[in-house]
Amino acid sequence: MAVLGSGSSNGGCSLLHAAGLGYGASLALDLPVKVRLLDKSPKKELVDPDGLLAAVIEAWSNSSLPLPDYELFWSVKSKVPPRQGLKSSAAVSVAAIRALCAATDTELDNSQIVDLSAAAQLAAGVSLTGSYDDSWAAVEGGWKLVDINAQDARSGVLLESKGPSSDDWNVLLILRGDREERPAIDDFTYHQQAFSQALSALQEGKDLVALTWNGRGVVGALNDPEGRRMTNDAFVNGARAAGMSGSGPAIVIFAPAISKPTLERLSKWYERFGDVEVIKTTVINAVFEESDE
């Protein structure tokens, strides 16, 4: 069995859910994904219930990009908890597109990868909006504020940031089980005030404030009172920011890296819930080229 090409990416969390206002932003987190393209079926059975990887191939072909003239197989290793709102679909699609690039000696810039990823996610039915913001985070790190109605991924970028420093913040992920169903876009309509607050915070460079406001909007859209209580618990125990990510149900918490007691207190608090898993991770900061000025 030969590896024809491999690609990597990472998961992330929401700073602004794109279904709220038509603008979205996601922050990259250290949740690695690696996808390999193989010439034979791997021993470990591939689990792809939404047909995302088939949708990646379809999006690739629809863009008139080259494919090998024999059957292809996939291998996926992902640290992104699926169906939790932590951008697993965007991460897998981006890594798969990079594997196809490696296998076919195709060069794509990051905006083209994001466009293909969005097309695949929409075709597979795993995204309400195309998740352009999620795919940008998977490709480059940091976060980008994007207009989901723009003509393409590159023109849709309105703001970008390296994100909160990975040296300054600990990130806790509170996993509450797989998402049972995906909400409709209309569910977000009645909570635009919270999403507007998140958008304003991003425009002011206050990304962690945006995470908290966005989480409040998502909790309302999902009608998840338990999620609201668990998010509020984070602040009682010393968190500086907390909010539900994506379309839930995972909760993302930021605590100062300098305060180990705060991290321990938060971890112990959520570990007391029998059906909850706590994961510690960090931000992946974007690397911007220095200007010549």
How is this structure best described in words?
It is a single chain. The chain has 293 residues and is α+β, with helices and mostly antiparallel strands. It folds into two domains: 3-161, Ribosomal Protein S5, domain 2 (2-Layer Sandwich); 169-281, Alpha-Beta Plaits, CATH 3.30.70.890. The chain contains nine helices and nine strands. It has helices at residues 18-21, 52-62, 88-104, 110-124, 132-140, 192-203, 207-222, 225-236, 260-271, and strands spanning 3-16, 23-38, 73-78, 143-147, 157-161, 169-175, 241-244, 251-256, 277-281. Strands 1, 2, 3, 4 and 5 form a five-stranded antiparallel β-sheet that branches. A four-stranded antiparallel β-sheet has the order 7-8-6-9. Strand 7 and strand 8 (251-256) form a beta hairpin. The longest helix is centred in the N-terminal third of the chain and has 17 residues, at 88-104. The model has no long low-confidence stretch (mean pLDDT 94).
